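From the shared-data thread, chain only:
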Amino acid sequence: MEMLHLQPPQSIDLEKDRGLTLTWADGTVSFYPVVYLRKMSPSAEARKMRETINANPLTVLPARRGTQSTTLMAESIEMVGRYAIRIIFSDGHHTGLFSWQYLREIAPESTHPDPGEGDSLTPHA
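Structure, as tokens:
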């Protein structure tokens, strides 16, 4: 099922050193670690690197630029219209636009609302 215009999340929470948490309109909560977001960046450069790694798992990764720290961080996020965000990483990368649809597709870990919540047949203590 293709969603052309996915609704923006209800909430966006960025912990610069940990990751991004999105709460979707259906109650699903998705967490994206910073390193995972950087690896999965939809930029042409990152997409090409993923293709290279898939073709040859022994590919040598380029050194990170623009950072004194050994810990990759998400410095900030910017809204791009109502359809995406841009993440500025501590290594200087900032060219990928993460659309809501793309973020939903790559969600590594999600928690879904309990379908039994609020059910009148559920006993309450």
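The first strand starts at residue 11 and ends at 15.
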